[in-house]
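User: I'm writing a tutorial on reading structure tokens. Could you give me a worked example: one chain, its sequence, then its tokens, then a sentence or two explaining what the tokens reveal?
Assistant: Sure. Here is the example chain.
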Amino acid sequence: MTRTAALLGPLMLLLGLAYLLPFLGVLRWSVTLPEPGLGQYHAALTDPLVLSVFWRTLRICAVVTVVSVAAAYVVTLLWVRGSPLQRLLVELCILIPFWISVLTRAFGWLALLSNKGLLNSWLMSLGVLGQPLTLVRNEFGVIVGMVHFLIPFAAFPLATTFRGLDERVLMAARGMGASRARIFWQVMVPMTRAGVLGAALLVFVFALGFFVTPAILGGGRSVMAAELVYLRIFQSPDWGLGAAVSVILMVCVGALLALMMRQGRAGGVR
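And here are its predicted structure tokens:
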């Protein structure tokens, strides 16, 4: 026990210095600026503009979570249970995005989906469109960029769940004459429910803190909570309200992480 504490001590000290102290500073700002009290929390929870940003953030995060986990489920199914060639291609598609920065990916989607981007130009040259579609500087563009970034993060917990499936149950279902569709919906999906929930919580937590992708693809028209903090700190400036929004986000993330850890223990993850 003493040896373990000695090994973990430097890590815990580093985490405390890197995360806990800055958070305590932000917490102090939220109750002292511009004057002591909880006025900034009251403003954050009653101001129509801030509330609209919170609701937009929750709405976008919910849509991104559903789409990312659904897409990752199909991708992971091919990754774990596909042919060797399919596994190799899917693994490359999952790993290569980690080598590309989030900023590069966001600008790539902007070049593809903007009014004069590749997609609109191609569709208009074919005569499919008479005028370009508005695919960026709105929630649609934000969702597309976030989903593209988060699918690999959803694939890893799902892959762990898929690799832990009991093949005897699937073989028994096939032996009893169940169709592939019935095996998928009534056997495989219930057996991977813990992985789906874990992936959904992980994606939702990541999505709550997104800043670069919404700022670029939203074009200031689909402001999310992290971007609101930036605007309040660096442009308004309203440090107290920005700090209060940050603390509220941290509390939400902490609650979701606690739920994720509880789900992991319930699913047998140690």
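What the tokens reveal: The chain has a mean pLDDT of 87. The first helix runs from residue 2 to 32.
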